[in-house]
Amino acid sequence: MVDRRRSFDPQAARDQALYDLLRAKKLLDSEDPTGAGFAPTAFEEGAADFTFRVAVNGSSRPAVVASADFVAGSSAADVQINAALDSCLDVPAGYGRVLLAEGVYELTAGGSITIHDNCSLIGAGKGATILRADVQSSDFSFIYGDRTVLAHFAFETYSGGS
User: Fold this and answer.
1) Which of 2, 39, 80, 92 is the most exposed place for a label (fewest CB within 10 A)?
2) Number of helices (H) and strands (E), helices first, in the chain?
3) Is the pLDDT of residue 114 over 90?
């Protein structure tokens, strides 16, 4: 007799539900050619309209930086990320997405990222897109509205430049 029971993984179930939602809204390719998780159509030709691309100079690949709509420097990356997110406000029906290329995005201490209603902030993968904030002097905040999606990036905090 073959045991056909499967263990239930709540994180995998949430990831699959998010993947299905993003595919339904045409925010992801139907296939994941990398095999590394979900594959945003981040910096490929033919990405949907109302997509704003952010890369980080010195951390993202040069070709990716060259094709980005917004390029963050070595610090205060939240300024460029917020500028891209603000572009979603000009999209018909208020729906847009901001795709973060691979790289390490150093965030302003005490700063925030504001994701507006009907906007998505999607990275290139938890190991590929890293948002880092120094929280020694103050906290960093994510402010988000209704019907927002935050996916496929890691958020790291550190204290005092370490």
Assistant:
1) 2
2) 3, 10
3) yes
41 vs 45, 46, 51, 85, CA distance in Å?
A: 8, 8, 10, 17
Q: How far apart are CA 26 and CA 34, in angstroms?
A: 18
106: its two tokens: 């150093």
In angstroms, the CA 70 to CA 99 distance is: 10
User: Which residues are within 8 A (CB) of 34 and not within 5 positions of it... i.e. 6 or more apart?
Assistant: none
Q: Evaluate if residue 2 carries a pLDDT over 70.
A: no
How far apart, in whole angstroms, are the C-alpha atoms of residue 102 and residue 124? 6
Question: Do you know the residue count of the chain?
Answer: 162
Domain ranges of the chain: 39-158
Helix, strand, coil fractions of the chain, as percent rounded to 5 = 25, 30, 50
